[in-house]
Amino acid sequence: MKPTPLDTTEVVRAGVEKAAKDLSARIEALGFKRTKRMLWVRRHQHTADFITLFRDGSSYGKPRNYSVSFTVSFGIRVLKDDFESLSLNGPLYDYSERLRAAHYHFRFNAQTGSTYNRCVEDLVRYVVQEGEPWFSRFRETKALLDALESPLRESQKARLRQAFDEAVETAAISQSLKLLGIKDR
């Protein structure tokens, strides 16, 4: 009796998980910790930097083939922000970006492993070359509050200012930690 081939979904899921683990191992030195399936976070006193991966086509049911491609985005979360989800307020590398510039290759074949190493290398390179300079630019509170290109909305800036005025943890901080997958210290 021939063994039943693995379902496309299982193969793609395993490939995505392997890529996420390999990415985690490579960006841990930058201070990022994988806190959820497709979320990496680096916490600061009043904010957190985060990276998300999204498997393109993942919301449309069973994969049609073994090709896996990712959208990568960055964000900064004010821990006192009371918005009920994470705001992807940083650079985003998605399909439309790929059409403009083929600098990164975020795709591989989960069945054959074709271009897997290139994909993981480019994910890491994107975090280092694009994400880290952006995060560094807004590392200081003054830049988050005053820069014309600040990724924060006015309500988030107000929450960040409050963080310096109040020492008490709030429900908003607890909500942020939960959204980011951070276990309280």
Tell me the total number of β-strands: 6
The coarse overall form would be elongated
Which consecutive residue ranges, at least 5 long each, have pLDDT under 50? Answer: none
Question: Nearest-angstrom radius of gyration?
Answer: 18 Å
Residues in β-strands, percent: 15-25%
Task: Give me the strand/helix succession.
Answer: HEEEEEHEHHHH
The helicity comes to: 40-55%
> How far is the first residue's CA from the last residue's CA?
53 Å
Based on secondary structure, the structural category is alpha+beta
How many H/I helical runs? 6
Number of domains: 1
Overall mean pLDDT stands at 88
Q: How can the largest sheet be summarized?
A: 6 strands, antiparallel
List keywords for this structure.
185 residues; alpha+beta; six-stranded antiparallel beta sheet; 6 strands; elongated
